[in-house]
Write a structure and sequence with these properties.
The protein is 49% helix and 11% strand. α4 crosses α5 and α19 packs across α24.
């Protein structure tokens, strides 16, 4: 026995209590302790049953992440699960908290399962680019049928105990101390003469159209392969004897362990947890955050207010006129109505949030007691300075003054107040109550406890918060401007916007850049191009064809015409022939002979532009670590999770290969494709972006 498992006997029942805080991860010591505990229980006279239960917050939250990337150690989890299931004793799992991944696989190897009403179960391995590897794809379908099992495995979703009971994953749901409730259940099973019920001995479930299920799952995963491979593992479990199905599952699991996608998704998993863990904030206490002010009740302001209300803060929203204030209240109510429909809040909570917790006013004086205020007005420096002047006058000392600017200089905004140390940028992404990313923009004079407060707000709102420095566009929009420019150059040189969108969607982006532009509104890019025209470098190639479309009043989805044509009631759009005509016209004016671009070349140019600019952002200290850039692109810009982010993608390709591609592109356009000095240095010193992450963590 190891110290991770407490062994106790209660008449003819042995309890194996897992004690590996905080969440009873399946470390080697836990696996060994469970195996030893089963051996001991079976060797003792008079023992008829074993109950496995977790101490503390969970039954078993899954694998031990500290063992990731290290050589596996015996006993291996599949062998442990088989060992538990084969026991001649009656084995029961009493589950509370979460039973995820290997935790659910251990529970499935027991003969019966009882859970607390608040318990959750799931097989989330697909989120790491893997499939369940200890019998999850074999036992779950036998227990509940192929289709519900495939849904659980390919989505990796958490299933609440009441639903798990309906599905047949657990046999009983009962409130109480997990050990006491579990013991009573085992006693009841023994007294009623219940027999062992190993899932491996249950008949295989009915088959489905496997190829169709594989194709649908692959399409839904937008290029991620692990969910589709899970379909093949389940298929093996239906078509082959149990032992052969287990071997097939293990083979697929091992193959996925060696894929680039698994590397990318493991990187994303760890980076998501590391991104808001900043060394500079160690020991720094955030300021109080109970009441939040929002200036502006448009889509962005209403989204921020909605997120703040759902996090438990009271909100004071300021609009210019009564009419606008009323519209803002309706917008927020509409957002909260969505939360009500999805069951996230009940009617009483909805009434409280839209009534007591929310104040909509036209008077800045209403902000006198808020702890933090976010300005979400028009993206114009003069307008923002006026707003901050008013906030400076009415907000209490110590109130954090935040701007939701996407591009503008937060130092200049801070200088318009008498308290620049209280000013920070909080760049939300629209819709703010849905999108996960929050860029916390730290100005030159921002106080450390204000930075800590920005991150505390992000955590309260359920955001992935990334620290950014001040520059035009911060991390995300600055890099976006560059890779979007690379796409514009390809259009001028002969690649159609539609082929570019298709290639990048195939790579794994949720949408291509031109579909995104239509969604955001073409007037935004138009305004940015006009703003930058005076300071533009003479060698910069900027297309004008799209400005001509904007001059006609066409701004994308909101006007029904952009790169694509949109019909009411129809999802998506169809290519706009006017765009093709305008591009051809501009190519003739510039004397360009268009050429063909392969999908691979489109992706390479787009990604290399992204990585090159990201390396400059790192070098300038706008982002502190490569993982900050990866998380920004993942959570704010639809970057495919299975690549881990652009910096991880570059590491996977090999930085020498990325640099060689950039140098090749620079032969024709040395101004745009100038290699980032940091990238050149990393290649020279044989280091990776991941090495920089490790250095920053020390």
């Amino acid at each position: 026995m190891t110290d991770k498992i407490a062994y106790s006997r209660h008449d003819d029942i042995v309890v194996l209590r897992i004690q590996n805080p905080p969440v009873n991860a399946l470390s080697q010591a836990v696996r060994q302790g469970l195996a030893d505990g089963m051996d001991r229980a079976e060797a003792e006279d008079g023992v008829r049953a074993v109950m496995i239960v977790g101490e503390g917050r969970a039954f078993i939250a899954g694998a031990d992440i500290t063992e990731f990337g290290k050589p596996p150690m015996e006993p291996f989890l599949p062998d442990l699960c088989n060992r538990i299931e084969a026991s001649p004793l009656l084995v029961v799992a009493s589950m509370h908290g979460v039973s995820l991944g290997g935790g659910l696989e251990v529970a499935l190897s027991a003969h019966y399962r009882i859970a607390q009403p608040s318990a959750r179960v799931g097989l989330p391995e697909v989120h790491l680019g893997l499939i369940p590897g200890a019998g999850g794809t074999q036992r779950l379908p036998r227990l509940i049928g192929v289709e519900p099992a495939l849904d659980a495995i390919t989505t990796g979703r958490h299933i609440k105990a009441p639903q798990a009971l309906e599905m047949g994953i657990v046999d009983r749901v009962e409130e109480g101390d997990p050990q006491e409730v579990g013991l009573a259940y085992v006693r009841e099973l023994l007294d009623s003469g219940a027999e062992r019920r190993p899932i491996c001995e249950m008949p295989a479930p009915a088959p489905i159209d496997w190829d169709a299920a594989y194709e649908v799952t692959l399409k839904k995963g937008r290029g991620q392969i692990s969910p589709a491979e899970a379909v093949r593992a389940v298929q093996a479990g239906v078509e082959k004897p149990f032992e052969e199905g287990m071997k097939a599952e293990r083979r697929i699991f091992s193959e996925l362990m060696n894929t680039d996608q698994r590397q990318g998704m493991i990187h994303a998993f760890f980076s998501e947890r590391a991104v808001s863990n900043l060394p500079e904030l160690k020991g720094v206490e955030p300021r109080e955050l109970k009441a939040i002010g929002v200036i502006g009740g448009g889509t962005m302001g209403a989204g921020i207010a909605t997120a703040a209300l759902l996090s438990g803060s009271s909100v004071v929203l300021i609009e210019m006129k009564e009419e606008a204030a009323k519209a803002a209240h309706e917008r927020i109510s509409g957002n909260l109505q969505g939360a009500l429909k999805r069951g996230k809040i009940d009617q009483a909570k909805f009434d409280h949030l839209t009534g007591t917790a929310l104040t909509v006013s036209t008077e800045y004086d209403s902000l006198s007691d808020v702890d933090l205020v976010v300005e979400a007005v028009f993206e114009d420096m003069d307008v923002k300075k006026q707003v901050f002047g008013k906030l400076d006058a009415v907000c209490k000392p110590g109130c954090v003054l935040a701007s939701n600017t996407s591009y503008l200089d937060v130092n200049e905004i801070a200088a318009s107040t008498k308290r620049p140390e209280d000013v920070i940028g909080l760049h939300f992404f629209s819709p703010a109550h849905v999108m996960k990313l929050l860029e916390v923009v730290v100005a030159d004079k921002t106080a450390k406890d204000v930075v800590a407060t920005g991150f505390a707000l992000g955590k309260a709102l359920g955001k992935i918060s990334v620290r950014a420095g001040v520059c035009d566009g911060f991390i995300g929009n600055r890099i976006l401007a560059t890779y979007r420019t690379a796409a514009d150059h390809m259009v001028l040189d002969g690649a159609s916007p539609y082929k570019i969108d298709a290639a990048l969607e195939k790579f794994g982006f949720a949408m291509g850049p031109f579909a995104v532009a239509d969604l955001a509104g073409l007037d935004i890019g138009w305004a940015t191009r006009k703003r930058k025209a005076a300071t533009r470098h003479p060698e910069e190639r900027v297309p004008t064809y799209i400005d001509r479309l904007c001059e006609q009043g066409h701004f994308g989805q909101k006007t029904g015409q952009g790169y694509y044509l949109y019909e009411k009631g129809k999802r998506g759009g169809t290519p706009n022939p006017e765009i093709t005509r305008l591009i051809e016209e501009e190519q003739k004016e510039r004397g360009i002979t268009p050429r063909e671009f392969t999908e691979a070349e489109i992706v390479r140019r787009y990604m290399c532009a992204m990585v090159n600019e990201a390396a400059k952002v790192l070098e300038e200290g706008i982002a502190k670590r490569p993982l900050d850039i990866d998380m920004t692109l993942l959570f704010g810009y639809g970057f495919p999770r299975y690549w881990g982010g652009p910096m991880k993608w570059a590491d996977i390709q090999g930085l020498p290969n990325v640099l060689a591609a950039i140098e090749g592109f620079a032969e024709k356009d040395p101004w745009f494709w100038k290699p980032a000095p940091l990238l050149v240095d990393l290649v020279k010193t044989n280091r990776t972006f991941d090495d920089l992450n490790k250095e920053a963590a020390k």
